[in-house]
Amino acid sequence: MNKEELIEILKSLKIPINEGIQNDKDTNVYPRIVFWEYGWEPITGSGTEYDTNVIYQISFFSKTSRDPKLIALKKKLKEKKINPYIEHEYIQDKKFFHSFFPIEVRENIE
C-alpha cells in the first residue's frame, strides 16, 4: 500500500483525520484520527517503484472502546491484507479511548 491508498481508506470513514498534529477544531470531536510518520526503512531491491517503507502511527480517538468506525477501519485494512495489532488505552481524565497501531506504506522520500 502507498500513502495515497492509506489516506483514501482513512477518508472513506468520513470522520476527521489529520496528519502530523491534531487540528484544534477537532480536539473534542469523536471519533477522529491523527496519523504521523515515525520511521523510515530503505527499500534496497532493484526495480522497486518506491525507495522507502514509511512507518506511520494511526491514532484513533473515540468515546467507546469498539467504535463502529474503528471496526470499519480494521475491515478495510483486512481487505488489503493488512492486519495490524491494535492497542487500546483509556484516557481517564479526558474520558475517551485511544486505539493505535503502526502501519507501513511505500513512498519515495529521496
Protein architecture, described:
- With 110 residues, the chain is of the alpha+beta class.
- The protein contains two helices and five strands, in the order αβββαββ.
- A five-stranded mixed beta sheet has the order 1-2-3-5-4, with helices on one face.
- A hairpin with a 4-residue loop joins β4 and β5 (96-107).
- The model has no long low-confidence stretch (mean pLDDT 92).
Considering the chains and any ligands shown, give keywords for the structure:
alpha+beta; 20% helix; 110 residues
Shape summary: elongated
Helix-strand string? HEEEHEE
Mean pLDDT: 92
Q: How do the strands of the widest beta sheet line up side by side?
A: 1-2-3-5-4
Please, what is the oligomeric state?
Answer: single chain
Percent of sequence in beta strands: 35-45%
What's the β-strand tally? 5
How far apart, in Å, are the first and last alpha carbons?
Answer: 18 Å
Major sheet characteristics: 5 strands, mixed
**What's the alpha carbon Rg, rounded to whole Å?**
15 Å
Point out poorly predicted stretches.
none
What is the structural class?
alpha+beta
Tally of individual helices: 2
Percent helix: 10-25%
